[in-house]
Amino acid sequence: MSKQPLLGLVPIGKFVFSHEDAMRYKAQIQELLTGMGVRYVDLDEVIPDGMVRSQTDVEPVVEFLKSQKVDCIFMPHCNFGTEGAVGMIARKMGVPTLLWGPRDEAPKPDGSRYRDSLCGLFASSKVLHKLKVPFTYIENCRVGDLQFTEGIDNFLRAANVASAFHTGMRIGHIGQRIDFFWTTIVNESELLERFNIEILPIDMVTFIRQAREHAKENYDKYAVEASNLRKTMEIINLDDEKLMHILAVRDGMLKLAEDEKLDGLALQDFDSLVDEFGAYCFLANSMVSDTIPVSCESDIHGAVSTIMLHRAGYGTKPVFLSDITIRHPEDDNGVLLWHAGAPLSMCKPGCKVKIGHHWILPSPVSGMPHFPLHDGNITVIRFDGDGGEYALAIGEGESMTGPDTLNNYVWMKLDNWRRWERILIEGPFIHHTAMAYGNYRKVFEEACKYIPGLTPVVLNID
Fold it and tell me: Which stretches in the chain have pLDDT values below 70?
């Protein structure tokens, strides 16, 4: 899956001010990036001192960075700024661009100054505006400030999100849209043309046939796994044959993802799988989504949302396509995030996973996972659109105490539910939101700068 993007470090200087001081800051930045574990390439073997100081540096720098296939560039202004070179490099590269400069010290006793980094940033930012180059800016601060390291981290995560749209996003859709879910009708052609999102249709009949064959061929292995699962989970009214078919569905999804190089999956969920296997297969979703994002109910926009959130966590944080459902019975700013098929790693410590009946639909069929999710800070996003206009709803909250319910859920505390409710209702969003643990709001605000045609809609007040 996704990994940290490759950063091109492009230190900016100028023929005026102290070159020695600029080199000192360049070395400090290199040391900090290395300490943060950032994957980066510098210009030390490309131009003198590895620092851009003239517009003649543009061509060799661009040629080198493209040969290294960098995903984004960082242009720290180490003593002032060669704004023409900044603008041309950024425009020719066409990748997410980060601007920053160190906070300038007081003038020397004689009144002279080592640098005017902030002044140079004003010039360079104007040129980027003139050339219509989007960029991210970290406010003027010192190298050791938390603001600086957090800014770099947010930028890299934003670049990783945006790169999914630049290199292409590939979603496997198993089955077809469920007839009565009109909310999940999407314009597949528009997604491909505008956002480089490819939907791979996977025939449900073929998928079911392969799952049956796989279960038969691997009977002994699945029998052992089913027996072990009964020791760790409470499994109700689900015989071994049905459980083994669920495990085969899991492996079928994982194999598809690997063979077809998929970024995520969208699954019909019912009724085909339920009718064929006599069980709900949401346990398969729970198992797969710890590895690759899974969107239930054929929600393609939901799949896009989960992939984006997965990339914000560099593919290491599982994502759950939850429903925003009911409000907290006692807290006006609390809401229930709920659905089925949450990653098993999200299970609240001390709670046992229960596999049982669908409590909403009256049926003796089993296979639905029931467990509460663990506590923590939460980010939710929803990619959606109608009529050619697309937006990304972005919100942050934190877990809170609340009544027990069924399936997979966590109560989330927000800053102002009335604002969230009105924005989500007035659209173009639906109730399915990708959720993950962590704070990624600023990441997505920046990422939208690099995804043409996608407008960020922040749900939080500040």
Answer: 1-2, 15, 17, 106, 108, 111-115
- Residue 17 has a pLDDT of 66
Tens digit of each residue's pLDDT (9 = 90 or more) over 80-126: 778 899 999 999 999 999 999 988 776 767 765 656 778 889 999 99
The CATH class of the 169-458 domain is alpha beta
Domain with CATH 3.40.50.10940 in the chain: 7-167
According to the model, what pLDDT value does residue 111 have?
64
What is the sign, positive or negative, of the torsion defined by CA atoms of 151, 153, 159, 162?
Answer: negative
- Pinpoint the residues of the chain covered by CATH 3.40.275.10: 169-458
CATH placement of domain 7-167: 3.40.50.10940
- Nearest C-alpha neighbor of 84 from the set 138, 46, 116, 120: 120
